[in-house]
Amino acid sequence: MKKDRNFDDLAEKFAENIYGTAKGQIRQTVVWQDIEYILEQLNGASSLQVLDAGGGIGQISQKIAALGHQVTLCDLSSEMLTLAAQEIAKNGLVEQYRLVHSPIQEISEHIEAPVDLILFHAVMEWLVDPIATLTGLLENVKPGGVISVMFYNYNGLLFKNLICGNLTHIEQGMPYRKRFKLQPQQGIKPDEVYQCLTEAGFDIMGKTGVRTFHDYMHHDRMGDYSFEQVLDMEQKLCRQEPFLSLGRYIHVYARKPHTGSTSALVTNLNNSNKDKG
Fold it and tell me: Methyltransferase type domain: which residues (predicted)?
């Protein structure tokens, strides 16, 4: 029986490869720009309640905690939580954090009430049933709150295999290659994520492509450029089509309407009109 991926066996290597690379730096930079915008929209509360679902070592949520917000970080991997505790202590953020060893699907048992902001970053691609997990997680967002979702983009995975000439692999359905232990187990189709959010009544606030071209570059035989140029160009292109939809990851963030909001009223009116028809 398939199980959600647990990184107990690769925690340190995973953290090093994800965050200690150019790829990680690009990811952190463009996603943090979105997070800053989200926090501006949630500025009604001086101290937000944040859930970092499957948060690993909490790279993004630690920056949020440093601004004075309270974070609950949950992860399936006890080794990841150990690394997170070390980083959190090193950065003087212990008072801002609560660490929970739990599958995401059971997180509602560990929080007292829905939260202002949920981070769900680079987790869906490791789950057996990613859309069902996302659907359940949405119930833990309070009215007016926001969910921030970053996922491994199916379209980016397809494009990468196309330009590498892996046509047979594509024809086989791009099965997961176990020898690449740090490569996500599957690509997530963006439309399925967007549909999940909108069907739950959330309003999509924005979308960002994460590494829209960096991963497609042949770094050993290209023209002259610096990493700073790459980072600058990624920031310029990441919210523009068609580049956004080709990102290796996509970051989408959506808000749950306040009770009695315009969106909710429109939905109720539409349902009422259907009944009359």
Answer: 51-147
CA–CA distance from 151 to each of 54, 121, 207 (Å)?
Answer: 12, 6, 11
- Identify the three-state secondary structure at position 120: strand
- Which long-range contacts does 104-109 make (Cβ < 8 Å, 24+ apart)? 104/53, 104/54, 104/74, 104/76, 104/133, 104/136, 104/137, 105/133, 105/136, 107/51, 107/53, 107/74, 107/137, 107/140, 108/136, 108/139, 108/140
User: The pTM is what?
Assistant: 0.87
Sorted by sequence, the CB contacts under 8 Å of residue 2 that are 6+ apart come out as: 128
Q: What is the C-alpha to C-alpha distance for residues 79 and 99, in angstroms, rounded to an integer?
A: 12
All domains of the chain in start order, with CATH: 10-256 (3.40.50.150)
Q: Which residues contact 21 (CB under 8 A, 6 or more apart)?
A: none
38 phi, psi to nearest 5 deg = -60, -45
Do 133 and 105 form a contact (C-beta atoms < 8 A)?
A: yes
| Residue 14 pLDDT | 56
End-to-end Cα, the chain, rounded Å: 47
Is the peptide bond preceding residue 143 cis, with omega within 30 degrees of 0? no
Give per-residue pLDDT as tens, 119-150.
Answer: 999 999 999 999 999 999 999 999 999 999 99
Q: Using pLDDT thresholds of 50, 70 and 90, give the confidence band for residue 43.
A: confident
4 contacts 103 by C-beta, under 8 angstroms = yes
Q: How many whole angstroms separate alpha carbon 105 and alpha carbon 107? A: 6
User: Mapping DSSP to helix (H, G, I), strand (E, B) and coil, where does residue 2 land?
Assistant: coil
Residue matched to tokens 């440093």:
66
Numbered residues of the known binding site: 27, 54-55, 75, 121
- Rounded Cα distance between 193 and 124, Å, is 10
